[in-house]
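tool=predict chain=A
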Amino acid sequence: MEDEVTPVQPVVLPDSAQNGGQVQETANDAFAVGFEDLLSIVLTQLTYQDPLKPIDNFEFVSQLAQFTQIQQTNTMNDNLESMLSADNSSLAAGLLGRQVDIPAGSVVLTGRVTNVAFNNGLPRLTIETADERTISNIQLGSISQIREGEN
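tool=predict ok
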């Protein structure tokens, strides 16, 4: 009896991964592999394909184009994250000495930004209120209003 070679099925990304967004996370979640692993799969597919039924050239080129698109999207996503982080850092540093309002339930806390710290790359503010309370670890997105500092 002759050993039958089962061709490896082509890797096709789900539509959600092809439409942008968190492509790397979608690919990693779907396959639990990275880009290099996907290329390894293609090489394995070529190595073990049935010689009597080789993979269609158009299908192969299409898969390579999808992998290239994933890599380019990952690079673009990394660059955008770096730009956003730098923008948030600049904005947070610009708040030093300014009065800010922070909604806290049914009240709004008002205070002067006295410190900007970074926790895992994310800016965290410390404010001092008019009654000399110090409130720390405030997220940048929590601010509802910014005014010039009042002394």
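The chain is about 40% helix and 25% strand. The CA atoms of residues 3 and 53 lie 15 Å apart.
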